[in-house]
Q: What sequence folds into this?
């Protein structure tokens, strides 16, 4: 089994346990072909059957109700399931990157699967299952837009859409804690700790690619955000977490401004 082929196989699996089992086999001693162009398979991305709605179609529920807390945990689990697929997609899709690029994104996928497992088990402890609530597909839509451009993928998925999780974590944690769900709040602490590292990986490879192209990271980001219609981020921003993830002060100063 070759690492990037294994990533594609895991990506097309619909169930989390299958993905998790295959991810555990994707160890550092697995053969890696960085140059091979791998044709896509049917079934990208693999995931359970879900009821799809637009972001505006998601009901707002009070976290002071059991259903409201479960809906929030479900939304977070959906983000983490997407994050597994996004990391796997990066590994198989983009050839001719350094070996460390692929190894690091496999590690990210493995940690995202652990996050999903924590949230999924907690959701089940509340009497619900993944798929019981509607979901939207915003994260994967950006992945599809950037499927031919690794620089755009690094700019607009890990360091833009996924970085929004750094900003949202304090509010989400407060909601769960104030709603009587300390276990859910503790899971958010774990996820935030790890997601800082994931966004840092995205930042590193984004800047590495900019250096390879002789491109200015700040100017290039603005150009890519316009070209691929990235959402303008809204505050409040978790500046401490963003700094820890490698964002520089000129980037932080531009948060929330039109592209």
A:
């Amino acid at each position: 089994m070759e690492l990037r082929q294994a990533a594609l196989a895991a990506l097309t699996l619909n169930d989390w346990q299958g993905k998790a089992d295959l991810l555990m086999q994707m160890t550092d001693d697995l053969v890696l072909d960085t140059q091979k162009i791998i044709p896509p398979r049917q079934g990208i991305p693999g995931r359970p059957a879900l009821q799809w709605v637009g972001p505006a179609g998601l009901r707002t529920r009070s976290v002071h109700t059991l259903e409201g807390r479960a809906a929030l945990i479900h939304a977070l689990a959906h983000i983490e399931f997407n994050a597994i697929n996004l990391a796997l997609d990066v590994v198989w899709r983009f050839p001719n990157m350094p070996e460390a690029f692929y190894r690091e994104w496999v590690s990210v996928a493995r940690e995202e699967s652990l996050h999903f497992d924590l949230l999924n088990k907690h959701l089940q402890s509340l009497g619900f299952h993944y798929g019981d609530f509607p979901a939207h597909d915003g994260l994967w839509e950006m992945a599809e837009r950037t499927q031919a451009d690794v620089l755009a993928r690094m700019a607009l998925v890990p360091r833009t859409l996924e970085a929004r999780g750094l900003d949202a974590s304090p509010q989400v944690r407060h909601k769960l804690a104030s709603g009587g769900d300390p276990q859910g709040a503790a899971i958010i602490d774990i996820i935030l700790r790890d997601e800082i590292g994931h966004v840092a990986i995205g930042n590193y490879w984004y800047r590495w690619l900019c250096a390879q192209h002789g491109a200015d990271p700040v100017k290039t980001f603005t150009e890519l955000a316009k070209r691929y219609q990235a959402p303008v981020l809204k505050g409040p921003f978790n500046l401490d977490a963003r700094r820890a993830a490698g964002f520089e002060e000129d980037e932080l100063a531009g948060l929330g401004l039109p592209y």
